[in-house]
Design brief:
This protein is of the alpha/beta class. It contains 10 helices and 12 strands. The longest helix has 21 residues. It is globular, with a radius of gyration of 26 Å.
């Protein structure tokens, strides 16, 4: 599927130059340009863009204003901010608005191209990564949220990662813009974590409460990567702050226990456990064979199980290894692992 990139800069020569270089990413990428924040928003209202690369200082709608509007209306779009006027304040704002990459000028074009490739490549696996959870743990998380909703009587509860990507939800969300909501709240927690980092606080725990005419909204981080959002429709039921915090903190403790063993993995690592275990056992068996005798062509059934005890390599015989072709002929690896030159 084609991925669309929008480059925004008020200098036409810069836009043209960056557009030419990013076009070299490949045929699966489509690059468009805009010379102002207003033009960028107009193009985004017509076409979806997967990545927006924008300069900071521009007349009219500047880079931060553009980023803020994109984050509010197109929460799934990745953002890269370029600037020659970097500062701690600008960097903090970029973090708050969940900018994927913050690049200061002057920079090498290759670095920008790499950043764009990484941003678009990681989108296929959900923002910066995919939270690897077994079905059992995912069900445990959902059950924990359901129990919390029952205990406090909320309309709905959302669990999302810090980039605003929804992981799971319980309750009624029909009238809510869930994607936009989680994206905006996630931006607030990004600021909280940045403050904690500046103050060298390893464990930051943040509880927020927003009282409105129609909705009461509670939110709290779950570790450094996740956060909860709890919503009450006041026309149906009001909330009690003390009760909500008591049960929410208890639920967060459970969620941290469930997710503590989960990992954020890249897409190439997402092989099944059975496959990885099988391949590891077969390779161990192969190395045992190499250590105790010359290589022979054999089927998987001929390979001896891995032994826990170590065997010494005879000093009068040079070490021998299998080539990829030998391993395939021996049945130790599938032919799909052979790549054409």
């Amino acid at each position: 599927m084609t991925k669309r990139i929008l480059i925004v800069d008020d200098e036409e020569s810069v836009v043209f130059f960056l557009g030419e270089n990013l076009s070299n990413l490949g045929a699966e990428y489509e690059v468009k340009t805009a010379c102002s924040g207003e033009e960028a928003l107009e193009k985004m209202s017509v076409h979806h863009f997967d990545l927006v690369i924008t300069d900071l200082r521009m007349p009219g709608v500047d880079g931060l204003e553009l980023v803020e509007q994109v984050r509010a209306h197109y929460p799934q779009t990745r953002l890269i901010l370029m600037t020659a006027f970097g500062s701690d304040q600008v960097e903090a704002e970029a973090r708050r608005l969940q900018v994927y990459r913050y690049i200061t000028k002057p920079f090498r074009v290759e670095d920008l191209v790499d950043a764009a490739r990484q941003a678009l490549g990681e989108m296929a696996i959900s923002q910066k990564g995919v939270l690897v959870l077994s079905d059992e743990r995912f069900e445990a998380i959902t059950r924990c949220l359901s129990d919390l909703r029952f205990e406090i009587g909320a309309q709905c509860i959302l669990l999302a990662d810090i980039m605003g990507q929804l992981i799971t939800q319980v309750g009624l969300t029909t009238s809510l813009e869930v994607d936009v909501l989680t994206s905006l709240i996630g931006g607030g927690f990004a600021t909280t974590f940045e403050v904690a980092r500046r103050l060298r606080q390893d464990q930051a725990f943040n509880l927020n409460y927003q009282e409105g005419n129609r909705y009461d909204i509670y939110s709290s981080n779950v570790g450094d990567n996740l956060f909860l959002t709890i919503i009450y429709d006041k026309r149906a039921r009001s909330s009690r702050i003390g009760l909500v915090w008591l049960y929410t903190k208890r639920a967060i403790k459970k969620l941290l226990e469930i997710t503590s063993v989960a990992e954020v993995a890249r897409i190439e690592e997402l092989l099944s456990d059975d496959f990885g275990t099988s391949l590891s056992r077969e390779l161990d068996s192969l190395f045992d064979e190499v250590l105790t005798g010359p290589p022979v062509e054999a089927s998987i059934s001929d390979v001896k199980p891995h032994q826990d005890e170590q065997k010494e390599l005879p000093t009068d015989r040079p070490a021998t290894t299998f080539s990829l072709e030998q391993a395939i002929r021996a049945g130790l690896l599938d032919e799909r692992f052979a790549c054409d030159e």
